[in-house]
Design brief:
The protein has 134 residues and is of the alpha+beta class. The chain is built from 4 helices and 4 strands, in the order H-H-H-H-E-E-E-E. The protein has one domain: Nuclear Transport Factor 2, Chain: A (Roll).
């Protein structure tokens, strides 16, 4: 999107953000939470009732920021060089869809890992958001 088109973009009344701002929020979230290993950002970005519906999420994680932080923290211990790169970002209404690619090396087995995922997030307001990984 051109700079002039971004200036004309209207803020969504549900999020008080433009689509460009919503996408930037999601980009920054992944960069901080995974790539910079800043688990404290989860306390800010995840809604209190957040539940990760990903197939790889172990049962029994608490909802909200605590569960997300526990899950990603454990992943970072197992795969210390874990990185996520964003392949696509799509914003529509109050939702953002992120297609991403995760890479890293299992610390114990030294096996190289690579997998892709899709995150569908709603209402990234800059304070908290909800998402589900497919």
């Amino acid at each position: 999107m051109s700079a002039s088109a971004e200036r004309l973009e209207v803020k969504n009344p549900k999020t008080d953000m433009t689509h460009a701002e919503m996408k930037e929020f999601m980009r920054n979230h992944f960069e901080e939470f995974v790539n910079r290993k800043n688990l404290r950002i989860g306390e800010v970005n995840f809604a209190p009732g957040f539940v990760d519906h990903g197939a790889d999420v172990p049962p029994g994680l608490p909802p909200g920021p605590a569960g997300a932080t526990q899950y990603v923290g454990a992943a970072l211990k197992k795969v210390p060089d874990l990185r996520v790169s964003i392949e696509d970002l799509i914003a529509e209404d109050d939702r953002v869809v992120v297609r991403n690619r995760w890479t890293g090396t299992d610390g114990a087995s030294k096996q190289r890992l690579e997998f892709s995922g899709i995150v569908i997030g709603g209402s990234p307001t800059g304070r908290s958001w909800r998402a589900g990984l497919i």
